[in-house]
Amino acid sequence: MSERTPLPLVFDEPRGRKKPPPHLADLTPDERVERLKELDLPGFRAKQLSTHYFARLVDDPAEMTDLPAAQRDELVAGLLPNLMTPLRTMEADRGTTRKTLWKLFDGALVESVLMRYPDRATVCVSSQAGCGMACPFCATGQGGLQRNMSTSEIVEQVVAAARSLARAEVPGGPGRVSNVVFMGMGEPLANYKAVIGTVRRLTDPTPDGLGMSARGITVSTVGLVPRMLQLAEEGIPVTLALSLHAPDDELRNELVPINTRYSVAETVDAAWNYARTTKRRVSIEYAMMRGINDQGWRADLLGDVLQERGDWGWVHVNLIPLNSVPGSRFDRSTEEAMATFQNRLIDRGISTTMRDTRGSDIDAACGQLAASEG
Questions:
Q1: Which residues are the active-site residues?
Q2: Any idea where the Radical SAM core domain is (predicted)?
């Protein structure tokens, strides 16, 4: 087995880094009022600023005409500081897929993707700059972890996409964000506090938040078992997506190094616990890699692993054609291998679909655009 980057012993905020400025998306409504009072500004203006940000999706202070001109700049600086700057936006699928490379306040680079379909609009967000999980087939994992993102930095990716849809900048006319998936750069559950804060901001009713349904939000993980157990007790009915990628410890130790700490059995048990506790079906993410994890017998083993925990209805398998990273030894499975793998799971009664791959021509695999910019 090749050498791997050592995994961190803890999954908390990296120390010694300057934090982004406070933003209203980091704060509860009461905390927003207190923030303005600390700045000797009228606390009642907090709701107006929240309305501009979450309900009206305004990003130009000149449009906030209900704020007094003499205080407008101070109010905006106090609760709506600029968090990130778009460096590049690339389009695919006739403009319905838009990938944006963002520069954060400290120079870190992250990516988000807006994907518009006839019946929904999904935003894929990053939760960390880089990633410390060191999965060898992932572009982000090759660069290591720079830092956790703040709640407001994650929220801003969604709000920016919401603005683009509302302004009809995406083909299909004015629209709304219906789904958010935490499947961009980083391991969401390694930045647990900020990710949960983001989910609460997205689901808080407007103007306190974006007013989304929690059922339209998916939080992914490579298998941080303690955090998976914690998420089950949050009382927020998000979908949990477990990036499994292998049904056996021998292979998963290599593909997903955190497996050396939490085995396949422990990880799938935690996913089963989430489904049982929340009554929400769990998604099993499985990247299809040619000659690595796409053998028919591994499909059968995956079926065994999932079915032995309970009725098959608790889980859905999402097969993902690998978006290959240049220079990597990992390549996408053949169409025949993927079809065989899918059919063997379906034949066992396990709900299984093949993910629609969008944006492969714009470096849509997480981390590819940031890596090319760096």
A1: 111, 366
A2: 117-361
Residues 162 and 279 in one domain: yes
> Per-residue pLDDT for 369 more than 90?
no
Q: How does pLDDT run across 94-152, given as a tens digit for each residue?
A: 999 999 999 999 999 999 999 999 999 999 999 999 999 999 999 888 889 999 999 99
CATH of the domain at 61: 1.10.150.530
pLDDT digits (tens, 9 = 90+) for 253-297: 999 999 999 999 999 999 999 999 999 999 999 999 999 999 999
Token duo for residue 258 = 């955190």
Closest C-alpha among 20, 338, 314, 317 to residue 156: 20
Instruction: Indicate whether 126 and 71 sit together in one domain.
Output: no
Domain that holds residue 174: 121-358
Return all residues near 109 (Cβ < 8 A) that are at least 6 apart. 87, 101, 102, 103, 129, 370, 373, 374
H-type alpha helices, the chain: 29-38, 45-50, 69-79, 151-166, 192-203, 225-232, 249-255, 264-278, 296-307, 335-347, 368-373
Query: At 263, is the secondary structure helix, strand, or coil?
Result: coil
Vertex 333: Cα angle to 329 and 335 (nearest 5): 155
In degrees rounded to 5, what are phi and psi of residue 216?
A: -95, 10
- Report the binding-site residues: 131, 135, 138, 186-187, 220, 243-245, 323
Total of domains in the chain: 2
Residue 242 belongs to some domain of the structure: yes
Query: Residue 309 domain-assigned?
Result: yes
What 8-state DSSP symbol labels residue 69? Answer: H
Residues 175 and 229 in one domain: yes
Residues in the annotated binding site for S-adenosyl-L-methionine: 186-187, 220, 243-245, 323
Please enumerate in sequence order all residues whose Cβ is within 8 A of that of 54, keeping only pairs 6 or more positions apart, or say none.
Answer: 159, 206, 207, 208, 209, 210, 211
17 lies in some domain:
no
Q: Is the dihedral of CA 103, 104, 107, 112 positive or negative?
A: negative
Let me know: does 252 contact 296? Beta carbons within 8 Å. Answer: no
Can you give the CATH number for the domain in which 202 is found? 3.20.20.70
Beta strands in 42-136 (DSSP E): 84-92, 97-104, 109-116, 121-124, 128-130
> In this structure, are residues 240 and 281 in contact, taking their beta carbons and an 8 Å threshold?
no
150 & 268 share domain: yes
